[in-house]
TrEMBL record, chain A:
Swiss-Prot/TrEMBL keywords: Cell membrane, Electron transport, Heme, Iron, Membrane, Metal-binding, Transmembrane, Transmembrane helix, Transport
Protein's name in the database: Cytochrome ubiquinol oxidase subunit I
PANTHER family xref list: CYTOCHROME BD UBIQUINOL OXIDASE SUBUNIT 1, CYTOCHROME D UBIQUINOL OXIDASE
Subcellular location: Cell membrane
Sequence intervals crossing the membrane: 12-33, 53-71, 91-115, 127-146, 187-208, 229-247, 342-363, 375-397, 426-445
Cellular component annotations (GO), alphabetically ordered: cytochrome complex; plasma membrane
Matching InterPro entries: Cyt-d_ubiquinol_oxidase_su_1
Annotated family: Belongs to the cytochrome ubiquinol oxidase subunit 1 family.
Residues in coiled coil: none
Record GO terms (molecular function): electron transfer activity; heme binding; metal ion binding; oxidoreductase activity, acting on diphenols and related substances as donors, oxygen as acceptor
TrEMBL record, chain B:
Protein name: Cytochrome d ubiquinol oxidase subunit II
Domain of life: Bacteria
PANTHER family linked to this entry: CYTOCHROME BD-I UBIQUINOL OXIDASE SUBUNIT 2, CYTOCHROME BD2 SUBUNIT II
Membrane topology, as annotated: Multi-pass membrane protein
Localization per Swiss-Prot or TrEMBL: Cell membrane
Any one GO BP annotation for this protein: aerobic electron transport chain
Principal location listed in the UniProt entry: membrane
Residue spans crossing the bilayer: 6-31, 52-71, 77-94, 115-137, 157-174, 195-216, 222-242, 249-271, 299-322
GO molecular function: electron transfer activity; metal ion binding; oxidoreductase activity, acting on diphenols and related substances as donors, oxygen as acceptor
Any Pfam family the entry gives: Cyt_bd_oxida_II
Length: 485, 332
């Protein structure tokens, strides 16, 4: 492996792992904010217990999400310095905006939320989790703006003398058509992750409780009721997220056909332009343009996905290759087709299965029922993994589908790496990150399971008693405080 | 004023904020090792920075993001040149962030002890390595005509840059001791004051040595650099006096000023260069040849001018919110 391969593997590994945590944080922050809001409104203890329980999972996840995000900002300069030189004038702006406008909000206010329980007025405390959640959305928007520029560069011109792309229209970058559709697609997909976690944890407790009634702690009759509510919230989030993902994904396909037709062709392994074009569910054989041995195809579906019309023409890889050679000169302009073909299908399959499991959960728990078969536990345990995998496949598809371009039409991937960095250096760093990320992913799973397993925490009602300003109130100054650390 | 100069100033401000804010939470991390006598005291220390360390760390994310946006050449050259030192910083900061959140989430002593080690190393490594990197900007690196680094370890790690690392580490430790004295009650507060008093002289010595060296690198030192250096050294001395009189708030303000003065001295000594080349001076990076286009700088100015103060306001509000001292009696 040369420097290019090592740097790409490092980016792939660190980004895919980072993106296990990101959608979890975005969606869970909102779900916890909603739970806390309902508690504030109803003063029902069940909602406070749910808030604290899922809030703990949020914080376990947020910690890994934040620290792995640091790597992202640094490695553009470390591994991809020629890329950073070439697009920094455009690409740096959304990253700096993300730090200044969004990341401060999240990091500062989540600290207040963690340490503010019982110490600051409840309404302000509630506001801090909403601000945190809002900050995560804003973060996602700016980061996706930077990524969308790489998919579909807009709002720039090339300064030949300086040899770089220069920003001419920030508004165009922030309203890139790829961004406007990728943002909702990503956020809906994020809700499938958080919803999947909430639904799975709640269902697991419900089924376990029903299977081993003697295990249920006495004096805690409301656990089942609270988990039933949480299950509804989680399953609905998965379904709403899933429907949103389908609708936005449909539009995204059309935008992709327009701005990155090669990616769409590669998603289907469509070598020859067809009108109408079919969509294959499954192909056995080679995807290199020779005949497929066996393939299940739905006629005309690709035409509809790509163009909105069942009769539409979808350009094939070979024709696009010829066009690009005319425009950019002789080279290979097609991505790794087996990777794009299968990741595209895996993304859809994972999302679809998650939606089906959420539907099954709602059906299986209708009108107070609780399934008790061991299969109910097994199916439930799979649920959180599916949207996570779907998110990962989606990103691998969209980034691999852009290849060989780093910035579509402007810079090829091999031109972006740091000229001064040796293969040994990148190898050391790739090895270090791989080991560290494997370790922290293990820790993440370990702690999430550890804190999800015991069930809802006991809470002493704290509503109200923190609302008075206790500045001069030394009566309880020496009482232990509820510390998070 | 040129926009690129304004952005150089803003990046200097962001680094100053970072060194002064995360500086003390690095210092607190350093104190968890020998200074804290048991687990309860360690928890007191960690909880003094609990609500604020993450917000403090964003200052460096913003400083780096602003460098990327306003001086892409500086970011690209420096970040690829300082590859392995930055890798160390990343590993340290990743471990440290996880340690704060996870150390209380295990059941065994060995779990906690391991995370305590991570907190210590995760504080010491970046506090030192950032100093090496910032001093390295002043010292310069061997850069070729394409602004790419063509040197090796010996160019990154020199006596001058190592001293820079010692200075940021020492300032962090003293600043952290002042912070602990300000934020705790009881025995730990008394000991923090005593430690701060003992640290003052060595800190003044390394700081004066380093800043003197920094000024002497230029044939004609700029007056802001000299003023920054003077403020920094005086502030450490003033901090010692304040500590001696039990004025913990003033002592903390003093090391805040010392860190800020040091940063001013470094960035003023650097300006108008941002990363000089030690090979051919013409290949070095300056605010002029490393900066983004005027349009990008204008856009970013419109974002930064209103929002930097907003960030300052709400971050200050958090410090006010959690202004109470804590002690071992608050740890259940």
């Amino acid at each position: 492996m040369d420097v290019l391969d090592l740097a790409r593997w490092q980016f792939g590994i660190t980004t895919v792992v980072h993106f296990f945590f990101v959608p979890f944080t975005i969606s869970m922050a909102f779900l916890v904010a909603i739970m806390q809001s309902v508690w504030m409104r109803t003063k029902s203890e069940r909602w406070l217990r749910l808030t604290k329980f899922f809030g703990k999972l949020l914080l376990i996840n947020l910690a890994v999400g934040v620290v792995t995000g640091l790597v992202q900002e640094f490695q553009f300069g470390m591994n991809w310095s020629d890329f950073s030189r070439f697009v920094g004038d455009v690409f740096g702006a959304p990253l700096a905006m993300e730090a200044l406008l969004a990341f401060y909000l999240e990091s500062v206010f989540v600290g207040v939320w963690i340490f503010g329980w019982g110490r600051i007025p409840p309404k302000i405390h509630l506001a801090t989790i909403w601000v945190t959640a809002f900050g995560t959305l804003l973060s996602a928007y700016f980061i996706l703006a930077a990524n969308s520029f790489m998919q579909n560069p807009v709002g720039y011109e090339i300064d030949e003398e300086a040899g770089r792309a220069e920003l001419t229209d920030i508004w165009a970058v922030l309203t890139n058509k790829v961004l406007l559709i990728t943002f909702p697609h990503t956020i809906f997909a994020a809700f499938m992750v958080g919803g999947g976690v909430v639904a799975a944890v709640a269902m697991w407790h419900l089924v376990r409780g029903a299977r081993n009634p003697e295990d249920a702690s006495p004096g805690r009759p409301s656990d089942a009721g609270a988990f039933r509510t949480a299950l509804r919230i989680g399953a609905v989030a998965v379904l709403v997220g899933g429907i949103g993902v389908v609708i936005t994904g449909d539009t995204q396909g059309k935008v992709m056909t327009e701005v990155q037709p090669m990616k769409m062709a590669a998603a289907e392994a469509l070598y020859e332009t067809e009108q109408p074009a079919p969509f294959s569910l499954f192909t056995v054989g080679t995807l290199d343009g020779s005949e497929a041995l066996y393939s299940i195809e739905i006629p005309q579906l690709l035409s509809f996905l790509g163009t909105g019309s069942f009769e539409g023409q979808v350009e094939g890889i070979n024709d696009l290759q010829a066009q690009y050679e005319q425009t950019y000169g002789p080279a290979d302009y097609s991505p790794n087709v087996p990777v794009t073909y299968w990741t595209f299908r895996m993304m859809i399959t994972m999302g679809g299965l998650a939606g089906l499991i959420a539907l099954w959960q709602l059906w299986a728990t209708r009108r107070g029922r609780v399934p008790t078969s061991p299969w109910a536990l097994r199916i439930t345990a799979v649920l959180p993994l599916l949207p996570l995998a779907g998110n990962a496949f989606g990103w691998i598809f969209t980034e691999m589908g852009r290849q060989p371009w780093l910035v579509f039409g402007l810079m090829r991937t091999e031109s972006g790496i740091s000229p001064s960095t040796s293969g040994t250096t990148v190898f050391v760093s790739l090895a270090a990150f791989t080991v560290l990320y494997a370790g922290l992913t293990w820790l993440w799973v370990h702690l999430l399971l550890k804190y999800a397993r015991p069930g809802l925490p006991d809470v002493t009602p704290i509503g109200g008693d923190a609302s008075k300003d206790d500045e001069d109130d030394d009566a309880d100054a020496d009482k232990p405080l509820s510390f998070a650390y | 004023m040129e926009l690129s100069t304004l952005w150089f100033l803003l990046i200097a401000v962001l680094w100053t904020g970072y060194l002064a804010l995360e500086g003390f939470d690095f210092g607190v991390g350093l104190l968890t090792r020998r200074f804290a006598r048991d687990d309860t005291e360690r928890r007191v220390l960690i909880n003094t920075i609990g609500p604020v360390w993450d917000g403090n760390e964003v200052w460096v994310i913003t400083a780096v993001g602003a460098t990327f946006a306003a001086f892409p050449e500086w970011y690209s050259t420096a970040w690829s040149a300082y590859y392995l030192p930055l890798l160390l910083i990343l590993l340290a900061l990743i471990g440290r962030g996880l340690a704060f959140e996870y150390r209380a989430k295990g059941d065994t002593d060995s779990w906690r002890r391991r995370w305590d080690l991570v907190i210590f190393a995760g504080s010491a490594v970046p506090a030192f390595v950032w100093g090496v990197i910032l001093a390295g900007f002043v010292q310069g690196l061997p850069l070729d005509a394409g602004h790419d680094f063509v040197g090796g370890w010996a160019d990154l790690v020199t006596p001058y840059t190592l001293l820079g690392g010692v200075v940021t580490l020492a300032l962090a430790l003293l600043h952290g001791a002042h912070y602990v004295a300000l934020k705790t009650v009881g025995d730990i507060r008394v000991r923090a004051r005593r430690l701060a008093g003992r640290l003052a002289v060595p800190v003044v010595v390394v700081l004066a040595w380093f800043l003197g060296w920094t000024l002497l690198r230029d044939d004609t030192p700029s007056w802001p650099a000299a003023a920054g250096a003077l403020v920094a050294v005086t502030a450490v001395a003033a901090g010692a006096t304040a500590t001696g009189r039990g004025r913990e708030g003033w002592a903390f303000v003093a090391t805040f000023a010392a860190v800020a003065g040091t940063a001013v001295a470094l960035f003023a000594a650097l300006f108008p260069e941002v990363l000089p080349s030690t090979l051919d001076a013409a290949d070095g990076l300056t605010t002029a040849n490393a900066s983004s286009s005027d349009y990008t700088l204008t856009v970013m100015t419109w974002v930064a001018v209103p929002f930097v103060p907003v960030v300052l306001i709400y971050q200050s509000w958090v410090y006010w919110m959690f202004r109470k001292r804590i002690g071992v009696q608050h740890i259940s």
